[in-house]
Amino acid sequence: MTAEVMETCLDPVLSRLVTSLKEAESLSGEQDLGFLQTLLESKELNALVNVHSKVAKIGKDDRVAPLLSSSMQVALEVLEQLAPRCHISPLCKEVFHLLQTPHLQSLLCAHDSIAKKDFYPHLPEIPMEVDEDEETIKIVQLVKNNEPLSGAQSAEPIVGATIKTDDETGKIVIARIMHGGAADRSGLIHVGDEVIEVNGINVEGKTPGDVLQILQNSEGTITFKIVPSDGKIGQRESKVRVRAHFDYDPMSDPYIPCKEAGQAFQRGDILHIVSQDDAFYWQARKEGDRNSRAGLIPSRNLQERRIIYERKQTENNTESKTENDDFDREMIATYEEVAKLYPRPGVYRPIILIGAPGVGRNELKRRLAARDPEKYRTPVPYTTRPIRTGEVPGREYIFIPRDKMEVDIQAGKFIEHGEYKGHLYGTSAESVRSIVNAGCVCVLSPHYQAIKALRTPQLKPFIIHVKPPAFEKLKETREASHARSTFDETNSRGFSDEELVDMIKSAERINFLYGHFFDDEINNDDLGKAFESLVQLAQKSECEPLWAPATWVQ
To answer: Which residue, 19, 72, 422, 441, has fewest beta-carbon neighbours within 10 Å?
Structure first.
């Protein structure tokens, strides 16, 4: 389009200004003139001028005078009348939603402004004197989305906050702000703020459930009229990360104040605890979900109480008693604070293979050590039995008098020990440390009860649970590989069905008691594939920063 044609499309006033600019081209820089000419010829500015001209013309024509100048107020009054009838009449609900759409409300506001010939913004005068007892009122607008705002009776995805009735005043107040939600991002709503109106509807005397009903039927922008609380405590996110030691589903939690505000997780998940202000429910998000709002999870104290209660309820259960005999009663697994443990050149974490007897962890250990004997080493066990023909002290076993080994066991120098056919066997903690200090990877396959002795800040082990597959697959693979039963002293027969069932039950029991300590797991349904997984996990423990107990990093 040529400049001449463009000028014919411009508003007459703007067109004259463009012509004047061209005449003044020799008096100013080309860059400044170019900017002004582009602005004056823009479609947006011409459209605004055109609208202004038409509004001014209509204002002088009495034939198109508006019938009223308070259509927005009328709409709000209609909304208040419709709110309690939305659940009765679909037509009322449809009109209720229609009157709250942003486009219609903007149209009504524009109509009222034109009707009042109020075309200019009006700023309030600065008061000379302020009444100290007068409450400050704040208007906050938030866009409704799939975030929860909950009350004592029900919950509905709204703006990322919870409300309650103040025990002393009976007023509706903000009880909790969800980190990362719309209310938190706005920075305009705080815990303790009193809610006076919602979308023009007075909430005085209403219950949280009533307010939620209003919000449930709202669409688009929601307007809150709020009295700010006296003290506003800023929500600073903590840097605490924890590993969850239990599964949690907020939908099955009968005590959570808002199920939709809950954060579900599974055992082993890393959670970023952003707030521990509440004694019963913390706010957290899964690590890595930086853009998501925080959700509610049980606090450590609340979860410990639940576990203690559940244990008391099962005290008469014989099977539960048996399982709890091996459990460290002083430790109730809820959350463990963690931090990233970065690998250090030449310092390797011991690899601990935990599993049920016969699952194949010893074979996996043997294969890993054989893959690179200079790198992967296993400690030489101690024993009190007599040396046999062909054995070399320090190669197969370290032979030690029984009284000496008993003294060392009492002194805690052995990470595991046991007795077989009247002789003691065991692995010393010093032998593990010596391998680590030599710059090698110590590979162990101890009894699961040795986890507590091995899982220390000094050793920082990488613990892997070697699990059996389901019974049919377990039987099929063991028979195909002609695996010999580890329960047979002569090692001359395969596994019986009963032994395979016991292996699966033992694995489930190990997972129940110590599963929260495992860094990873391997399903040994195929020995070759299981070994490949072990090699990959060993490399992972050497090269990648991994989550570990925070005390190991500090």
So the answer is: 422
